[in-house]
Amino acid sequence: MREPVDLRRQRILAAVRARGAARVRDLAEELQVSVVTVRRDVEELTRAGRLRRGHGVVRSTVPAEEAPAAADPRGGGRVALVVPERHAYLTEVLHGARTVLEEAGVPFALHIAPRGPGAERPLVERALADGAAGLLLAPRWLARSHEEADQDWLAALDVPTVLMERRPRPGSPSHALDSVCSDHWYGAHLAVEHLVGLGHRRIVFATREDSPTARTLRAAFAETARAHPLVEGWAWALSAPGAGQEGPYGADETAEVPALLRRTGATALVGHGDEDALMIVQRLAQEGVRVPEDCSVVAYDDVVAGLGTPPLTAVSPPKAEVGRVAARLLLDRLRGAPERSVRRVELLPRLTVRGSTGRPGDAG
Fold first, then answer.
1. Which residue in 32, 120, 130, 194 has the most C-beta neighbors within 10 A?
2. Structure letter (DSSP) for residue 258
3. Bridge-partner residues for 84, per DSSP?
């Protein structure tokens, strides 16, 4: 999903202010956009008096004496935020963290990790070399093997570090890192209880499996459905081609969702994430399956679920709040707060009911 222009320009401002000056080409590389796009943004920010432009270089308009100190960890210190490229869900987490850091007057630099295993490590090493005193990290971890490969260097980091929407596995080398996550097990519970409460007894779960959140959701849905006394049958499938990295998958797990609904007799679907769920609804419409009359649909993420036709009922993890809590936790560490145990914070999602769910066979 394309990033909003205002947010991209805020990221440019934050990067330039954190360093004092930055090359346009470096900004384009970090933000994973074209040089032309960055130049256009810089022109607008320069016209607004928020940046000064030079030959290939952008400078902050904030005088050096007004800029927050960037080197004293006990006073806040420079913070590095490392997140995956083109990830709408984590963009909201990032926005929450940014607001806390800006309000605290703490300089920060954003680093965008390209898709691929181990992409975050060189960015973290660069940030530390540039003087970062603390880290907010959200590694992509497309597969479990990617997560395992990152454990040792994460555990060896010698600056305060908080993981956002990532929970190290118990007993792993990075188990002792601070982390702030949504409680996706509770999110799965909300979706299932909502559908069962409407009278649905057979449910298909269509999720991704290319992130820790996706893998947690698959396990959570399976456990919740197995344990629920009113769920008579359920099945799981990948929500879209290419949504899985683990494999190999069985025939049902790679089946087209409309066909799986027919085979299982399911009257409800939970889809992760929003865009995949919206595309499934479109495929259902092409095959004459009405939502919610023939099949109720719940999306998981609630980034764009409300923009569908019909607007999708969705589980909404507290994305921005995850970022805010993670940033406050990191600031506590940087400011030399009294020693505290490692914290693993979980925030509960909520369910937003819209027009895509109803009672089975209810045409009214």
1. 120
2. H
3. 113
Residue 273: name the closest of 166, 141, 347, 184 by CA.
184
Quick check: helix, strand or coil at residue 263?
helix
Q: Which residues pair with 344 in a beta bridge?
A: 179
* Cα–Cα distance for residue pair 125/300, rounded to 1 Å: 34
Q: 216 forms bridges with which residues in the sheet? A: none
On the CB side of 188, how many CA atoms lie within 13 Å of its CA? 24
**CA diameter of the chain:** 68
> What mean pLDDT comes out for the span 75-93?
81
pLDDT single digits (tens) 284-338: 999 999 999 999 999 999 999 999 999 999 999 999 999 999 999 999 988 876 5
Instruction: State how far the Cα of 165 lies from the Cα of 328, in Å rounded to an integer.
Output: 15
Burial (0-12, 13-18, 19+ Cβ within 10 Å), 355: middle
Is the CB of residue 274 less than 8 Å from the CB of residue 314? yes
Token pair 């893998």 in the structure block, residue: 215
What value, to the nearest 5°, has the Cα angle with vertex 161 and ends 129 and 273? 110
Q: Are strands 51-53 and 57-60 parallel, antiparallel or unpaired?
A: antiparallel
Residue in the structure block whose two tokens are 């928020």: 50
DSSP H or E stretch at residue 326: helix 319-334
Residue that is written with structure tokens 């940030």 in the block: 127
How far, in Å, CA of 77 to CA of 61, rounded?
A: 21
pLDDT at residue 76 tops 50: no
Kindly report the backbone phi and psi dihedral angles of residue 250, in degrees, each rounded to the nearest multiple of 5, phi listed first: -80, 175
End-to-end CA distance of the chain: 34
68 pLDDT tier (thresholds 50, 70, 90): very low
Rounded to 10 degrees, what is the CA torsion of 319, 324, 330, 332? Answer: -150
Map residue 306 onto helix, strand or coil.
helix
Helices then strands, each counted (H, E), the chain: 11, 15
Q: How far apart are CA 204 and CA 225, in angstroms?
A: 10
